Amino acid sequence: MTGDSTRDRRLDRLRARLSEQVALKDVPVTLPRAGRTYSILTPTDHDRLLDEAETDPEQNLPYWAEIWPSGIALGDVALARAAALAGHTVLELGSGLGITAAAALEAGAELLAADYSAVSLALCRHNALRNAGREPRTMEINWRAPTDELLAHADAIRGYPRILAADVLYETRDIAPLLALTERLLAPDGVLWLAEPGREAAQRFLAAATALGWGRESEAHDGPWTEGTNVRVGVHFLRRPGS
């Protein structure tokens, strides 16, 4: 009972802080393969978030504020492959609203969730705690200019055995930085789990990784997704050359 009370108070504090920054609503999200339904706190005023992005020096649009099929699919994979995550220090690049994070924590991962947006990270903490009973560690990063803290943490554990990324490739300018950062942070025998819905930037990322000798296995996920979105998500398991 004490644990539930402490969690509820923490959730109330997180939600109150978030409500000061953005309008919110609760949305049920079902992981179709696992049959697990999460209640996800999500922003409602996307126009305001777009207006705020105009002053961002990186011009990063608030992609994180949407519920994307890729995050749901990767959450399904996390639960299906829990043995590959349980007890391991795992990095998620681009935490979004925390759907994948909640599943990874349920699977037993020790998760570090990283995102460019502080609001995204706060929502990730809230939604993970609400649905998985645990919060991830979080870190605000720009993967085009990764912080010393992120690099040092990877070095201390000799690289992450798993890096998770769902629908993070919208723009071609991110292909080279993301590939370089993954190579820098991934353990020698580690695996990048990348979920993507067929965007051109993601296909070019996969082609670039293949050209550099990265190995890849893939599987397809067809939903059904929240709000009836009709898209096939590819989930790819990429290993660095020679591993």
Automatic annotation (TrEMBL):
InterPro entries per the record? Methyltransf_16, SAM-dependent_MTases_sf
SUPFAM superfamilies this protein is in? S-adenosyl-L-methionine-dependent methyltransferases
Q: Which domain of life is it from?
A: Bacteria
Put simply, this protein is called SAM-dependent methyltransferase
